[in-house]
């Protein structure tokens, strides 16, 4: 067998080369399940939440952050354009005139050497262009949900502002519109529809989605909206026993259930978990005395959702999402500075999910729990399976035995291997007849975080 590490490095470098060279807008792929670039190349969304990037980082810090994310395989950054109506950046530039959403504060020229000419929007332009150089798409949230919910924005203002955003960025190749911002669509429904419709009408080049509140999904309100190109869920930051409301208990921590629900909706649209639990954040979000989510948790959410049919996955870290630095008043019990947190274990492990999905035929992959012969399991014991025509993946979070119903993929014989989500290491198991039921026992002891993917390939 080829040296696995060399193969992985080659594959990853090739992916980076394709992304850097093919900076084209994204579109929905044939079949409606996945994304691709407008020249037809498959696109697996591997996102990072850099929510406060535009406001808190200098140009030099931006370069460092984007270079790191490119190196780690991320190809989408989710970011707030306006965290609120008083938004200003690290250079002291305000975004709006008198906190009026319909009055962006722009200046003639964009020379960084002239502080008068280099304004809030010029800085966003710089970041967007720098990301494009690195093959990274910017998922822009025009206005975060809090200001809208507070009644500080009118529908007319929202429409004018959305038109401004569409006009300014429709020529950029690497834009994705992310309406909403941690909010239920039912909060100010007319305004969210106005923003979505305006973006869709004035910028026909780029996709539009909606970032919802925790434990909700965009499809709860907008699945049939003409402006919504793909669905997004926020599975949220709570663990099972922290859900109190009935709507939260419906799916709870099982983010694969949200994906499964949207995957089965008509008309067919792609779906992604745009905000699962962040690495380095308290379970439940608000109490630092609670345990913190770790790398094993962000891996679990990633493989659960993608194997259930998602078109990609968004990772997040508590310190990075708020770009926490020395002297800041941090929130959610943040314990690291962003410059250190970019190297958190989970951030470095996301590339192995992307590499695995890109290593086989992308277009024909479907979720298929029928691969599991019995005892699919619940909660952390859950097995999640996906397959193409001639390959299959089954994920276990805790290294439990996997009973497989053979014959679900093509071929008289198959070869099997274990793939580690922790480091991309692969161990060959053997070759077997593609019939009957076989039980595979992963390496190591059965415990949370001893996660493995069983790979089955047609011989």
From TrEMBL:
Residues 30-362 form the Apiosidase-like catalytic domain. The lineage of its organism: Bacteria, Pseudomonadati, Bacteroidota, Chitinophagia, Chitinophagales. InterPro entries: Apiosidase-like_cat_dom (IPR025277), Collagen-bd_put (IPR024749), GH (IPR017853). This is DUF4038 domain-containing protein. Residues 366-457 form the Putative collagen-binding domain. Transmembrane segments: none annotated. Coiled coil: none annotated. It comes from Chitinophaga tropicalis. SUPFAM superfamilies: (Trans)glycosidases (SSF51445).
């Amino acid at each position: 067998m080829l040296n696995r590490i060399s193969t992985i490095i080659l594959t990853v470098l090739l992916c980076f080369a394709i992304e850097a060279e093919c900076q084209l807008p994204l579109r929905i792929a044939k079949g409606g399940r996945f994304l691709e670039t407008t020249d037809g190349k498959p696109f697996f969304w591997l996102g990072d939440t850099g929510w406060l990037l535009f406001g808190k980082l200098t140009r030099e810090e931006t370069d460092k952050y984007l270079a790191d994310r490119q190196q780690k395989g991320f190809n989408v950054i989710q970011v707030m354009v306006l965290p609120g109506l008083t938004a200003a950046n690290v250079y002291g530039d305000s975004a709006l005139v008198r906190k009026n959403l319909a009055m962006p504060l722009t200046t003639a020229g964009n020379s960084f050497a002239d502080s008068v000419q280099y304004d809030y929007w010029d800085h966003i332009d710089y970041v967007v262009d720098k990301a494009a150089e690195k093959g990274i798409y910017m998922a822009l949230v025009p206005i975060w949900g809090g200001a809208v919910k507070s009644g500080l924005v009118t529908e007319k203002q929202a429409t004018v502002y959305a038109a401004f955003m569409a006009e300014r960025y429709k020529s950029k190749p690497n834009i994705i519109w992310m309406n909403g911002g941690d909010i239920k669509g039912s909060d100010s429904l007319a305004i969210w529809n106005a923003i979505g419709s305006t973006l869709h009408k004035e910028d026909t080049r780029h996709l539009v989605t909606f970032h919802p509140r925790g434990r909700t999904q965009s499809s709860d309100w907008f699945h049939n909206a003409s402006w919504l190109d793909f669905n997004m869920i926020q599975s949220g930051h709570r663990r099972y026993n922290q859900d109190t409301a009935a709507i939260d208990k419906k799916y709870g921590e099982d983010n694969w259930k949200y994906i499964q629900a949207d995957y089965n909706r008509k008309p067919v649209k792609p779906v992604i978990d745009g905000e699962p639990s962040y690495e380095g954040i308290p379970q439940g979000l608000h109490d630092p005395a609670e345990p913190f989510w770790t790398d094993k948790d962000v891996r679990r959410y990633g493989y659960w959702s993608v194997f259930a049919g998602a078109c990609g996955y968004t990772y997040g870290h508590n310190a990075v999402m708020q770009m926490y630095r020395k002297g800041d008043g941090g929130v959610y019990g943040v314990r690291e500075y962003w410059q250190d947190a970019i190297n958190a274990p989970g951030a470095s492990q996301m590339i192995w999910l992307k590499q695995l999905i890109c290593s086989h035929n992308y277009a024909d992959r479907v979720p298929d729990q029928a691969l599991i012969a019995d005892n699919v399991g619940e909660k952390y014991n859950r097995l999640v399976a996906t397959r193409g025509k001639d390959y299959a993946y089954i994920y276990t979070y805790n290294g439990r035995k996997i009973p497989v119903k053979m014959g679900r993929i093509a071929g008289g014989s198959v070869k099997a291997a274990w793939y580690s989500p922790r480091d991309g290491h692969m161990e060959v198991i053997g070759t077997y007849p593609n019939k009957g039921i076989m039980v595979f026992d992963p390496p190591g002891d059965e415990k949370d975080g001893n996660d493995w993917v069983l790979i089955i390939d047609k011989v």
